[in-house]
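quick one, three chains, predict together pls
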Amino acid sequence: MNLDELMVRFWQKDRQALSKLITRVEDDSPDLPEIMSAIYPKIGRAHVIGITGPPGAGKSTMVDKLIKAFREQGKSVGVLAVDPSSIYSGGAFLGDRIRMQWAYQDDNVYLRSMATRGELGGLAPRASEIIKVMDAFGLEVIIVETVGVGQMEADIIRYADTKVVVSVPGLGDQMQALKAGIMEIADVFVVNKADLPGALEVVDDLQMMLYLRKEAEWKPDIVLTEALNARGIGELVEAIHKHRDYLAESGLAARVIGQRREYACHYAMKEALRKYMELKVEETEEIKALLTQVREGGIDPYRGAQEIINKVFKIHL
Amino acid sequence: MAEIKKSTAEIINENLKDAGKAPVYDAAFINKVQKGVDDWKQNVVRPNDLKNWEAVPLTVLGSEIPREMVYTPLSVQNNNYVEQIGNPGEAPFTRGVHANMYRGRAFTQRQLVGFGGPEDTNARIKYLLNHGATGINLLFDMPTIQMYDCDDPMALGSVGSCGVSVNHVADWEKLYDGIDIAKESSSIVTHYPSNCSCLFPMYLVMAERRGVPWDQLKGSVQNDMTLEELVRNASEYIPPKDCFRVECDNIEFIRKNVPQWNFITLNGYNFREFGTSGVTEMAVAAAHGMAILDEMIRRGYDVDWVAERLAFFWSIGMDFFEESARLRAMRRLWYRILKYKYNAKNPRSTWMRCHVQTSGISLVREEPYNNAIRSAFEALAAVLGGVQSLHVDSYDEAISVPSEEASLLSLRTQQIIEHETGITSVVDPLGGSYYVEALTNEMEKRILAEITEIEKQGGYVAAIENGYLARKTFNYMYKEQMRIERGEIKIVGHNWQRSGEGEEFEAFRYPEACEEIQLKRLQEHRATRDSAAVEKALNELRAAIKDGKNIMEYTVNCSRAGCTVGEKWKVFKEVFGLWKRPSVF
Amino acid sequence: MADKKIKVVMCCLGPETHNRGIMVVSSILKEEGMEVIYMGNTTAENALKAAVEEDVKVIGVSSLSGAHLRTGKHLRELIKEKGLEKNIATVIGGVIPPGDVKPLQEMGFHAVCVSGTKRDDLVAAMKSAAATVQ
């Protein structure tokens, strides 16, 4: 299908067109800038909620309940669930849908899984572009779910308006890692499985950490939940709304939008350059010869890079 | 749950003292044998055989335990007859739970039956009973097993497949039409605790309506949470600890109200067929049995009250001697667990009684008649292992559900073993074989070691919750599949000596019209029942689950009110919530 | 960029009780570099909704209980009804009598992988199915 046709169907709210468009973004298709440019005027309406936490914290159950809660408020919901790809085969096992399929016979819920495909640096911006496509499509709440506590998760979640970090009692040492990582960027804390012993200890830990936060304008709520029984989900939705309202009233939202626009521009620029360079390397014999020299040790990699750039852009670095 | 201070293995070992440790033969004799064996190895055995003295048989569902080329008195030099083997019908029951075994009573020949609507299965039950089957072994169709009514969107196309479709009590009445339930015992294959809680009460209500008192009913249910939480392929699971409660509620209710009924069959079979070794199969069932005993003791019951009715269900795979040996090993181990860990007083409580089924996963679609041979060998291993009850899989199982002809051949296989081979005239004919006794010891050791591993996970329920058992099973299953792919495990006609025969095989078809009939019936039922009574019964069930009351008391009431299987299951899901299984990938 | 990723939905249609087959096959596909959306037991409607949202090329169906003709037909009809024949291919496998292979192919299943199908053949079937759709 050509892009024009696809865009027409996209604006007609054709879900298959939405899916195809997301695939193009995910596959880094050549018409990516064109797509993003086309949808850009329509973005910024959705409330994007990021959910992350260690494996076994009960995130997908929580996402499940959140979808239900937002649906009850009459909002359409999009979900982007990010799962790791195998380092060896590049294959991935995307198992989240198995838990989420039942509530969503209705067309106001759109679920999409995404494998990390081993691209660490590019993953988060890619996810942010997919979120924008969902946003432009008209989905009102978009939930991004990642599994884990590392830098990659923090990067993805950074693109959310409201960042929810889920922890559970009994994490032990993992809690320390959490505190030094994604918890620093959380807007809402959830202590799930609050019926287990140790839940209050986690709350204590979190309060201590918040106390030590420097001059933060926003003091995150700590919500206790038992997602399995949907206990505490109402409070969580409330906390999420409270943060959304804060973003709007404090003017933070406006500032963040500006920053994000600029960042997106930087990223697009880098991507365009990267692709241009790759193309040139591919088609220029002279550059290929230079690379052979680099491989064989005839020229060091850094000087090699400079010379290649000079050749491509006819400049003198 | 109480803190586990000592592992089961530690408790048993402390109590055993010398069993299996002290020499049986006098030293001079052993020295002589040792010398003889050494000389033989040096002078007679070829160097190449010596080098490969231990070989690992690769078989479907095998344990990959290395075997020596030959076993001698040296292999069992500490195997004290009194402590390790014993007479049949005496502790530790290695040789069987009865003194006379099959001389007293042959193994029950229970062929699984179930397909189509209640009438279809009713006819097949009568056919098998008329041909000498000695029990009913009832299997439900896919929707019923997974607790969907026949009008659920999930049920489309599966109504009556692989089992019989039943939705409410009236269906049960048709299913048992003309069959005397006070006389015939029924094994009702309610795989899961949830399913048992939804389905078995319908049998009880049927009995009630026929005027047969519950204490006259004989038979068994499965009621096994390993199947519901670990083996079952679904997308909706209640949390393990809740499933365990349902299981124990079922046990409590049935034990009190239907005293002759076996309230649980610890089902190793489906778990093993799903993909695990005979060792893990037994270790998990034993750990599960212990979890039940602990919980029932916690609820204030005497251990014997529960243990005397625990029964097991095993899969019998292709490694002939391993299968017989592990049945002997498990009898001994279960006795030791009950005796030393639980101080059971009633000898019956310490018996590992079992029904077995030959392995379905060992059957292949190529040259399907070969499957009859496989099943026969498996059945023979089971009988040599001293089982109470047996089902022989049919040769067409890799292709379709069994035809009448294939079912009959399975029944005939059992009858030939019983009446033509002479095997049943001697109790435990393999007892005393150096090889079988050594393998029996090895199996017991390995099963106990795996029980210890499960205990390290925090016990049976925790090992399901945290994914330990799921991962272990998946790894086994995957490895086995690759071994078959690569031809390391040989399957004749499938990956070795493939002839391409059997492609034109005529498969059995279940009556598809039953879907329409069942749908219509269910519609009528829903339209004519007292819907206020249904609502009330379901609400009471909801409250009982929340209040921690015995659930089965309320599912019985639901059945009386005309609630369907699916309606009860919906309440379970709603109140317990859904559990996400740990991923194995 | 190398080859585009092959993304597949793997499911059983209806309340199957055995999942050994679907689990092993899903693992194999993952090892071959495919992205597998694992659905477990589901309905044709759900499987198709997932296939559209995830933009997969192939729906793989595992069937053991003998319902394959009914459920398979239902799935194919839904695909046709929604005009997705050119976008989504289907492959079915499991316990399927030899006589049913042809009817399933005629319904529009790209491949029928009966129990015992070799790993390589299975992967090839999924790949060639993916190549037939856009």
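The radius of gyration of chain B is 24 Å.
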